[in-house]
């Protein structure tokens, strides 16, 4: 529409009519004369308005999601924290189960050998004394621990106490090169001395150079005078190799210890020796041999195979 005198007059007239309708509608309230027109407009434009609202709602939801993302992120972080706490608790439970299992084995070996023991936990490895294979345990003089006491766990001989403090003690492990213990062969009663070789098998020198020994034979501690530093009957290990007899005064064996010296946790210090030598009663039960399966092969002659003279 062009800007003419007539168009300006029409615009002024329309504005005046609009103000008049607004005034009438406000004064009329619910009985407004334009109420019917309002309902008619709603009937015409309502569906269009609903369509626009449906189209806009997903956008609004997305905006709302972005606005609430901070609180959702906080909730996710809280859930992750709870999950981590549960995992830590599970790990703690696993460790407690492992310790209970170790303690159960320790009490069993102490009961079979009639050893009076003081339980302790390994709290450190190595020591200031310069020993290469030592551990520190959380039991000392205040717990009745004294120097030169036997230390064992649920598998067998661990070592002997060398240094004692009020609440802690140092234990020289049986695989240390400075460690030596008297041994006795199971059943055969051959005596010898076992020495540590670090991460290699123990070296045992039998006093009888002509002793009949084979791989798989087992050894226990022979015991010391007055049971210090070693009580008798503690499992030491299994023979893994025997040097050929050279006609010497002694015979050399190599023994795999029962104890894993890199996996020590719960140990027991023998504070009271048994009244009598338990001999071989503390040794673990021998594993049952696994039967070798027998395979029977049956040969069936082929139909195309030529007949033998007997068959003809």
Poorly predicted spans = 41-50, 52-60, 62-69
SSE class: alpha+beta
Proportion of residues in β-strands: 15-25%
Order of strands across the widest beta sheet? 1-2-5-4-3-12
Number of helices: 2
> How would you state the average pLDDT, rounded?
79
Radius of gyration: 46 Å
Order of helices and strands: HHEEEEEEEEEEEE
What distance separates the N and C termini? Answer: 123 Å
Could you say which overall geometry the principal axes of the C-alpha atoms support? elongated
Helix content: 25-40%
Query: How many individual β-strands?
Result: 12
Sketch the major β-sheet. 6 strands, antiparallel, barrel
Topology (elements, then pairings):
Elements: H1 5-28, H2 35-113, E1 116-125, E2 134-137, E3 150-152, E4 157-164, E5 169-173, E6 180-185, E7 191-197, E8 200-206, E9 218-221, E10 235-242, E11 251-257, E12 266-272
Antiparallel strand pairs: 1-2, 1-12, 2-5, 3-4, 3-12, 4-5, 6-7, 6-9, 7-8, 8-11, 9-10, 10-11
Protein architecture, described:
The chain is built from 2 helices and 12 strands; from the N terminus they run H-H-E-E-E-E-E-E-E-E-E-E-E-E. It has 312 residues and is α+β, with helices and mostly antiparallel strands. The strands form 2 sheets. The chain has a 6-stranded antiparallel beta barrel. The chain starts with a helix and ends in a 40-residue tail after the last strand. Strand 4 (157-164) and strand 5 form a beta hairpin. It has helices at residues 5-28, 35-113; strands at residues 116-125, 134-137, 150-152, 157-164, 169-173, 180-185, 191-197, 200-206, 218-221, 235-242, 251-257, 266-272. The relative contact order is 0.11. The protein is elongated and about 140 Å long.
């Amino acid at each position: 529409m062009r800007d003419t005198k007539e168009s300006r007059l029409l615009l002024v007239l329309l504005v005046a009519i609009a103000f008049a309708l607004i005034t009438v509608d406000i004064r009329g309230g619910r009985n407004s004369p334009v109420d019917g027109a309002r309902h008619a407009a709603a009937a015409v434009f309502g569906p269009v308005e609903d369509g626009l609202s449906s189209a806009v709602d997903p956008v609004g939801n997305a905006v709302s999601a972005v606005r609430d993302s901070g609180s959702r992120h906080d909730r996710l972080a809280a859930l992750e924290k709870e999950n981590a706490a549960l995992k830590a608790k599970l790990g703690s439970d696993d460790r407690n189960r492992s310790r209970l299992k170790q303690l159960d084995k320790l009490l069993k070996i102490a009961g079979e050998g009639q050893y009076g023991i003081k339980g302790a936990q390994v709290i450190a490895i190595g020591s200031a004394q310069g020993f290469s294979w030592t551990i520190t345990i959380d039991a000392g003089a205040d717990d009745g621990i004294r120097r030169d006491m036997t230390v064992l766990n649920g598998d067998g001989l661990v070592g002997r106490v060398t240094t004692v403090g009020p609440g802690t003690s140092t234990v020289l492990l049986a695989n240390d090169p400075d460690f030596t213990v008297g041994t006795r062969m199971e059943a055969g009663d051959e005596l010898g001395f076992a020495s540590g070789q670090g991460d290699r098998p123990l070296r045992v020198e039998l006093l009888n150079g002509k002793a009949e020994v084979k791989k798989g034979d087992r050894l226990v501690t022979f015991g010391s005078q007055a049971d210090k530093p070693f009580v008798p009957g503690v499992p030491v290990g299994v023979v893994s190799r025997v040097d050929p007899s050279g006609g010497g005064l002694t015979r050399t064996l190599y023994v795999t210890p029962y104890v894993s010296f890199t996996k020590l946790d719960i140990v027991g210090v023998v504070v009271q020796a048994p009244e009598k030598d338990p001999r071989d009663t503390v040794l673990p039960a021998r594993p049952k041999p696994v039967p070798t399966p027998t395979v029977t092969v049956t040969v069936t002659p082929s139909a195309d195979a030529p007949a033998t003279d007997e068959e003809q």
